[in-house]
Amino acid sequence: MKSEIEENEVRLADKREQVADLEAELAELKEERTELKETLGEARTAYEQTKEQVDETESRLESLRQTAERLDWEIDELSAQVGAYDPEEIPDHDELEREIERLEQEMESLEPVNMLAIDEYDRVSEELAELEEKRETLLEERNGIETRIEEFEAKKKATFMDAYEGINGQFEDIFARLSDGSGTLFLEDEADPFEGGLTMKAQPGDKPVQRLAAMSGGEKSLTALAFIFAIQRYNPAPFYALDEVDAFLDAANADAVGELIDELAGNAQFVVVSHRSALLERSERAIGVTMQQNNISAVTGIDLSTEVPADD
């Protein structure tokens, strides 16, 4: 046991020496680590300072680039304003000094200057600006009114042309029915119908086309009645009064007019003054006026709306 203890003590001494060596080495490593930490801190500080210097340098570089671009732009602008020039024509310094002196003398010759003119100029400028603003407003209003007038004129023309075409179609149909001929309406100025007139072109039966003044009384009556009935068909009215419109018509034409009035009476009321049986036979009520003795008029009425027996 003693021998073993001695061996262990020898081994323990060795281990203690090893531990002492390790502790010495650890102390050296700790000291080295401390030095490395200090070196790293200094490196980081140097890095931060260098980075700041780099950022400042880049910022200055970018500012210089912008300044260079601005100067290039100003050079281009000045070159465009100056244009082509001859360097020899540019005056020297002495000549510029003389020109400046001459201009200063001219300015002095304009004195005394009314300093209130600046205030007066500002006041007049404000008034001018207000007037120009009002002018612009008036121009806008005028343009709006002109636009509305053009729209109304276009609508008026479109409405007129619709009525004209509709009435003309009815006129052609009715005139052909009454006269066995052809008739139409036409405008003297189709581009601007309100600047020209409306003319009837009529050809009753087999007769040639002629002016209205050259037609007979019956032909004029048929043409006028065809126009009136065409308007009535296009835009019916509830009541019509006709005074001896068949006075110049022969029996056949009077019968044709009576037939047409009888047809149109389904949608309107007609009061007709006539001496012709063609109209009297188609009326619902007849009122007769006769001259009695002593120039006294007598009025009689007959209800023709119901059929009267033959033996009555």
Structure commentary:
The chain is mostly helical and 312 residues long. Among the domains are: 125-235, Rossmann fold, CATH 3.40.50; 236-312, Rossmann fold (3-Layer(aba) Sandwich), CATH 3.40.50. 63% of the residues lie in helices and 12% in strands. The protein contains 6 helices and 6 strands. The chain has helices at 2-82, 93-109, 116-179, 217-234, 251-264, 277-280, and strands at 182-187, 198-203, 239-243, 269-273, 285-291, 297-303. α3 packs across α4. The protein is elongated. Residues 308-312 have low confidence and may be disordered. This is AAA family ATPase. InterPro entries: P-loop_NTPase, RecF/RecN/SMC_N. Residues 5-155 form a coiled coil.
Short description:
The chain has 312 residues and is mostly helical. Helix content is 63%, strand content 12%. It has helices at residues 2-82, 93-109, 116-179, 217-234, 251-264, 277-280; strands at 182-187, 198-203, 239-243, 269-273, 285-291, 297-303.
Throw out a few tags for this protein.
single chain; 312 residues; mainly alpha; Rossmann fold; two-stranded antiparallel ribbon; two-stranded parallel sheet; 6 helices; elongated; disordered C terminus; RecF/RecN/SMC_N
Low-confidence stretches: 308-312
Task: Return the string of H and E elements.
Answer: HHHEEHEHEHEE
Please identify, by name, the CATH architecture of the domain at 125-235: 3-Layer(aba) Sandwich
The mean pLDDT is: 83
- Sheet with the most strands? 2 strands, antiparallel
Helical residue percent? 55-70%
